[in-house]
Amino acid sequence: MMAQCIMRVAAGSRLRTPPGTMTDASVYNSSDNLNTHLNGVGRVLPSLRVSYESAALEQILAGPEVLAVVGFGNAAPAHGDPRYLRVALEPLLGPAPFEVWRASAPVIHETAGELRWSGDGDYAFGVIEVDEGARGGIAASARYAYCLLREWIAASRTPHVLRIWNYLDAINTGSGDSERYREFCRGRADGMASLFEHGFPAATAIGVRSGRRVLQVYWLAARVRGAALENPRQVSAWRYPREHGPSAPTFARAMRAPTRSPQLYISGTAAIVGHVSHHHDDLPAQLDETLMNFASLLEAAGVPAGAHFGSHSVLKGYVRNGADAGAVVARLRERLPTSTPMLLLHGDICRRELLIEIDGILAG
Hints:
The chain is α+β, with helices and mostly antiparallel strands. Helices cover about 25% and strands about 30% of the residues. It has a single domain (about 1-260), classed as CATH 3.30.1330.40.
């Protein structure tokens, strides 16, 4: 797999929009179009169960249906189980719980070099961790990681990627097209090539402050294809104009899973309207704009207004300035049901002017 990736990456595309990419028919901006698509593919999978849990890691991993466990920050334990990932995002409100994904059947797992995965036949969790120093920087590391992902998909029985998380150190370092986030986007687009011709998955890209130049990419894939969803208030990220970099970000605003009951994977969402950042350096206004983007997206997905958040959802907030954590919690508690599970992490957003980003999973 590794040698094939190295050879294929050498011929990677540098087109602004990746080749073989989505047409307007690949994404959905209304619940009618979305439901038509889902009726066509069949809502055939059980919903993945996602929760925040504070039990001991060994106790959690002992469950035969545990697909993945994510720990946050330096206080999270190390562990060699392929289903476990520790990310270098520090929690802002005391020790963080684990994020736990549970499938509906016994899980198997495997490690192959820099890639490890687990699966139950319906869903798969995968992780790639790439040392930037060994690969020649963030662009080459992203290219390599997504080439490995492409190779994994080609051999997998769960080839339909629903959701991807990307964590990289010092995301805003550099200026202009040399900014590390823009370099990451360029490498990601090159590595993807025509991988997601039926629609990009939902995704998040956040900067950590660990000082370790290790790119972490992890994902959720399924046996059946989901439906990519766009936000009517925002330009599709893969259509951003050149001012945002030589390679547009390649993700959908959300992904509707092919499940019997509705399950929506929401990409990292911030105070962007159209393609422009709003409310520079104004945290309350950015947070309100972010929640308006959530409301617009969930309306497009056909989620009733009374079911937008609550105990059936999990949210992660990435806050640039740690001192803002208290204000963020207070405002979110004003706007969201108190039963909404929420985790606040100290992370840098892909644009310097943005102070907060939120992603999440909403299940009916």
